[in-house]
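PROTEIN DATA CARD
Card holder: Rad50/SbcC-type AAA domain-containing protein
Chain length: 190
Origin: Xanthomonas vasicola pv. vasculorum NCPPB 890
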Amino acid sequence: MQLAVVRISNFWSFGPKPVEVKLDSMTYLLGPNGAGKTAVLTALARMFGTTGSMRAVLPSDFHVAMGEAPAEGEVASLWIEADFTFPEVKEGEATAAVPIFFSHMQLQSAGEVPGVRIRLTAEMDVSGEIEQRLEYVLAADEDGTPTQLRGMPKLDRQAIQVHYLPARRNPADHIAYSAASLLVSPALLI
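Structure generated from the sequence above:
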């Protein structure tokens, strides 16, 4: 199972026009400050983070254009999509990932590797209440806009995990983290 594409709309620095990030078997996110590296990684953590707090969409996650205020009285929305491919199916390998996602796999054309498309949609109402949904994309129109979705069960979501440790911008945080890990390390060796 391999993450092949991430699409982002209205999340952090990504505006309403969807941005597509294609990934290879090994991908590096390089760029100047403000290019969106952390936004891409945080977007994946919102979908597949290991804790509820990592997966929770926050009001600050919704994109607001620079120099503008959030629209008064309007519902804000964002979405993040992840396309996974299963090259092991084409190679005839038996892996644990295949059975979990088998019923949602799709072929775009003959001879291609099967894939699964997963979408996180979040909406924030005027009171600041956020509703989020993680769903399989079962069908899409010719533009790629989803036309048929099905909720992703928690068990399926737990089969995909993103372990993301955000950069610590404050040197004091690094020192506190290092000191704590030095104190805990000997206990782990026992």
